[in-house]
Amino acid sequence: MITASNISLAFGTQILFKEVNIKFTPGNCYGVIGANGAGKSTFLKILSGEIEQDTGDVIITPGERLAVLKQDHFAFNDFTVLETVIKGYEHLFDVMSERDAIYAKEDFSEADGMRAAELENEFAELGGWEAEAEAGVMLNGLGIDDEMLNRKMRDIDDTIKVRVLLAQALFGNPDILLLDEPTNHLDLESIHWLESFLEDFKNTVIVVSHDRHFLNSVCTHIADIDYGKIQLYVGNYDFWYLSSQLASKQMKDEKRRREDKIAELKEFIQRFSSNLSKARQATSRKKLIDKLTIDDIKPSSRRFPYVAFKPEREPGKNILEVKNLTKTIDGEKILDNFSLTVNNGDKIAFVGPMHAAKTLFFEIVSGKVEPDSGSYEWGVTTKMSYNPKDNISYFTEHMSISDWLRQYSTENDDTFVRSFLGRMLFSGDESLKDCTVLSGGEKVRCMLSKLMLEAGNVLVLDEPTSHLDLEAITSLNNGLIDFTGVLLFNSHDHQFVDTIANRIVEFAPDGKVIDRMIRLEEYLDNEDIRSLRDSYYHGHSGVQI
After folding, report:
1. Are 276 and 283 in contact (CB under 8 A)?
2. What pLDDT is attached to residue 279?
3. Could you tell me where the beta strands, DSSP code E, fall in 156-201?
4. Bridge-partner residues for 487, per DSSP?
5. Top-level CATH class of 318-536?
6. What is the largest CA-CA distance in the chain?
7. Cα–Cα distance between 494 and 429 in angstroms, integer?
8. d(CA 544, CA 186)
9. What pLDDT digit, counting tens, does each position of 214-239 carry?
């Protein structure tokens, strides 16, 4: 068990935490959420001892081992992949190292023999004989082959290092596990493996993630950082979001009788509980939710931006015809005779590990890049709006956010622009902020405001959830579900893709393409598609979204 007692922390005049008290108990997985800058990663660093708080104490049950997902990709450069994983259990690694050093001595003494015997006993008690096999299984589950085990960390790609460091944190059955964005750079198979691992993990997990599907799969509780406090809620992210929204709606409805509110909340709890799956973690959540009282459900003070795309006209039958697009960049053929017909009603998610192909395709059809050969033609009734992955070129001139947005508005009235920005959470003097100093999330919210004002009936969105917090992602998700036009997009957010897309197009290696009118979950579960994908990816890295 790990407890934060009376924790406070401030950086200058900015107060991140004020007298926070929270207890994390075994058998539960806690998802830490909060707006960008609220202090999620900082709180995990306080728990791990990496950052010292101003006041208060972090108390860990004596004898329990805490493991942390390391973020330093260079800290283990001199170690092999296998050694790096086993170093997650530092005491075991030290025992192994000392034992091996004694056996390597040429002048092996009687004292060395006695010490080696002691180390052998401790090695066995710590599970040392199973350590390499356990580490190998974890690495395989995360998509790392056995042939990589003895390679030095300095010689492997950063995306592989992330997986090795994740295996390091999981290794040796730690009592308390702290994970900051563990799904970053993982493919879908690895994320599913991690979800299964955590569903069966019987100790304490505290995780920060912007992946709602992941939070919904593994979390029994949500720890919400808001206004310097941390409020603990039973259930996963969806339960927190829906219950807090329902409670907030009821607070605004002063005419509703308390009995009606109670009945509505009870019905919500029962409906949510009955929909949970039979996984161990989900069963645990169900038991906890069933024990909730009405007073346990509280409205959240968190604000969600307003995201709604309303086309100024309906698109016609002909949307986009792509024929034999080919493009080579720096000697590498990224697109090879790619053809595609986009129909009215399509919401297409482009998936696969060929990220350059997805971005390049979007840049070509939006008119930013010329293909080497092939053609594309938009229908005469289409009005296309484009959100690039890299939006820095839109924010190079010194001007206020309100002046920046006014460039894309037919309404020049200051009240209209400020009201629009207010709905996107730029309230008061924030609308006067210089757009060259905006954070990544603020820039994306500006770009979404631009797209809404353009009122296009076709949206082309390249990783639109990047840099957004969970509230903005949820609002964008809902806005695109309701969007009545045509959508071409890509995203690493599983739930985002699954709830929006009705068609999946996967760029596979060697110019191969899979195109199906199907939702993401069905796509991933389809045996025929899985066999086809396996044949396409033979000798290549795993599938990602």
Report:
1. yes
2. 60
3. 176-180
4. 347, 459
5. alpha beta
6. 89
7. 36
8. 8
9. 999 899 999 999 878 898 888 888 88
Amino acid letter at 157? Answer: D
Phi, psi of 172 (to 5 degrees): 80, 15
Per-residue model confidence as pLDDT tens digits over 242-299? 887 777 776 666 555 556 666 766 776 676 666 666 566 666 666 666 776 666 666 6
Nearest to residue 25, comparing CAs of 58, 49, 59, 2?
2
User: Which residues have a Cβ under 8 Å from the Cβ of 175 and sit 6 or more positions away?
Assistant: 26, 61, 64, 65, 66, 203, 204
- Phi-psi label, residue 455: left if phi above 0, alpha if psi -120 to 50, beta otherwise: left
Buried-exposed string 351-381: b where 16+ CB fall within 10 A, e elsewhere: bbbbbebbbbbbbbbbeeeebeebebebbee
Torsion angle defined by CA atoms of residues 199, 273, 469 and 311, in that order, rounded to the nearest 10 degrees: 130
Ramachandran angles phi, psi of 114, nearest 5°: -65, -40
By DSSP bridging, strand 2-11 and strand 318-329 are unpaired
The tokens describing 544, both together, are 């990602």
Tokens of 507: 């760029």
Coil vs helix vs strand at 279: coil
Q: How many CA atoms lie within 13 A of 211 on its CB side?
A: 27
Separation of alpha carbons 44 and 70, rounded Å: 11
Q: Which residue has the tokens 């709905």?
A: 423
Q: How far apart are CA 324 and CA 339, in angstroms?
A: 5
Q: Using CA atoms, how far apart are residues 454 and 437, in angstroms rounded to an integer?
A: 24
What pairs with residue 259 in β-bridges? Answer: none
Q: With contact defined as beta carbons under 8 Å apart, do 376 and 320 qualify? A: yes
Enumerate the CATH 3.40.50.300 domain ranges in the chain, comma separated: 318-536
Q: For the segment 321-360, what is each residue's pLDDT rounded down to a tens digit?
A: 999 999 999 999 999 999 999 999 999 999 988 889 999 9
Beta-carbon-side half-sphere exposure of residue 100 (alpha carbons within 13 Å): 7
